[in-house]
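User: Here's a structure from my thesis project, written as C-alpha cells. My advisor, Dr. K., wants to see whether a designed sequence matches the one we expressed. Can you design one independently, without my sequence as a hint?
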C-alpha cells in the first residue's frame, strides 16, 4: 500500500510518530512523508519511507507573496503521484489542507472528538476515534492500526532509528525550550554540569536561536563543559545518537535521546509526562511536585511561596521543584542499567 503521510511538525511530535510508522512498515505499508523542511533528515531515517516531501508553511507565512511560487511547486509535487490512502496524523487545518490536495481514494484522520482542530476532520473520508487521554505514541499507533486494518499493537514502541557508535564520555544537557514555563532554572543546569564533570564525563551543551547566552554561562561556570557549534537537524541527530546520556526538559532533542535508545531523563513541569513523556527501557520522566502541575500553560500562574536554591529565589517555580541531584541520580541509574544489559 502506498500512503501519503502528513505529519509536519514539531520535532517531538515527529518522534512520537516514528513507532506508528515502524508498525505500519512491518505490515507492508510504504510512505511518502510530508514534513516541515527543517525536519526532513529525521523523517528520511524512518523505516518504510520512500520519499520525503518537505513543506515550508513556516517560511511561507513570513513572506506569502514572494513564497507563492514555492507553495505552488509543492502542490504540484504532492499531486504528481496517486496514493492508495492519505493519512493526516497531525489533525490541524493546515495538515488537512495538504491531505485534501493529494490525489487519493481515501483520506483518513482523527475523528471530531480526537482531532486537535475540529474543522480538520471535515477533510477526511474516514474518521478514527482515539481517546485524547492516551500517550501521543499510543494515539498514533492506534490511528495507524485503524487506518491500515491491523490490530493495535501492545508491544513496546520501536522508533526504527539505527544505532550509532556511542561516545562514552559525553552527557547532553538539553536545556532549550520554546516555553518559558518548561525552563529548568539556570543554576540547576550549572549544578548538574558539575555533577557530570565530577563523574569524569563531559557536559555537552547544544543551543539554537536565543539559547546561546545560557549555554555559554553554563560553560563559564563549569569549564569542562563543551558548547556545541551551530547545528542543523542532521548534526543534532549525529550528536544525540552517540552521547552517553541525555538530560533535558520536554523538548524535541530530549525526545530524540529516548528514540535513539540513549539513557534519557526528561524533566516535566507544565506538560504531562503521561501524554508526552519519553518511553523506553532507558528512559525516565521526572515531574514537578506542585499541585498546579501539569497546567499545560505557557504562562505560570503559580501564586505560592517563592522557590529557592542555595538561599536564592529561582524561577519558574514549577520545574524548580525538580532538583539537580534527583535528575543526575536518575540518569546514573539508567546508564548503569544499560551497562549491565551490555555485559
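Assistant: Designed independently from the structure alone:
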Amino acid at each position: 500500500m502506498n500512503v501519503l503521510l502528513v505529519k509536519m511538525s514539531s520535532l517531538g511530535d515527529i518522534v512520537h510518530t516514528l513507532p506508528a510508522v515502524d508498525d505500519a512498515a512491518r505490515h507492508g505499508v510504504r510512505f511518502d512523508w510530508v514534513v516541515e523542511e527543517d525536519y526532513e533528515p529525521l523523517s528520511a531515517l524512518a523505516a518504510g519511507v520512500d520519499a520525503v516531501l518537505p513543506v515550508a508553511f513556516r517560511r511561507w507565512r513570513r513572506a506569502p507573496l514572494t513564497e507563492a511560487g514555492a507553495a505552488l511547486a509543492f502542490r504540484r509535487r504532492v499531486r504528481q503521484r496517486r496514493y492508495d490512502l492519505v493519512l493526516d496524523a497531525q489533525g490541524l487545518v493546515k495538515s488537512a489542507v495538504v491531505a485534501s490536495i493529494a490525489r487519493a481514494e481515501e483520506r483518513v484522520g482523527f475523528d471530531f472528538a480526537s482531532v486537535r482542530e475540529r474543522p480538520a476532520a471535515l477533510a477526511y473520508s474516514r474518521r478514527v476515534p482515539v481517546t485524547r487521554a492516551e500517550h501521543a505514541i499510543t494515539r498514533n499507533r492506534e490511528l495507524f492500526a485503524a487506518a491500515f486494518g491491523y490490530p493495535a499493537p501492545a508491544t513496546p514502541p520501536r522508533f526504527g532509528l539505527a544505532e550509532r557508535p556511542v561516545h562514552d564520555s559525553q552527557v547532553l544537557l538539553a536545556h532549550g525550550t520554546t516555553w518559558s514555563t518548561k525552563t529548568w532554572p539556570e543554576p540547576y543546569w550549572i549544578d548538574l554540569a558539575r555533577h557530570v564533570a565530577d563523574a569524569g564525563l563531559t557536559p555537552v551543551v547544544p543551543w539554537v536561536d536565543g539559547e546561546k547566552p545560557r549555554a555559554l554561562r553554563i560553560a563559564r561556570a563549569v569549564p569542562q563543559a563543551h558548547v556545541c557549534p551551530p547545528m542543523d537537524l542532521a548534526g543534532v541527530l549525529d550528536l544525540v545518537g552517540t552521547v552517553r546520556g541525555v538530560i533535558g526538559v520536554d523538548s524535541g532533542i530530549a525526545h530524540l535521546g529516548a528514540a535513539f535508545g540513549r539513557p534519557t531523563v526528561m524533566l516535566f513541569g507544565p506538560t504531562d509526562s503521561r501524554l508526552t513523556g519519553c518511553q523506553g527501557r532507558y528512559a525516565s520522566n521526572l515531574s514537578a511536585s506542585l499541585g498546579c502541575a501539569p497546567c499545560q500553560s505557557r504562562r505560570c500562574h503559580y501564586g505560592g511561596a517563592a522557590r529557592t536554591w542555595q538561599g536564592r529565589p529561582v524561577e519558574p517555580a514549577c520545574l524548580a521543584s525538580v532538583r539537580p541531584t534527583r535528575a543526575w541520580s536518575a540518569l546514573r541509574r539508567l546508564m548503569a542499567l544499560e551497562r549491565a544489559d551490555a555485559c
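When you compare it with your expressed construct, this may help: The mean pLDDT is 94.
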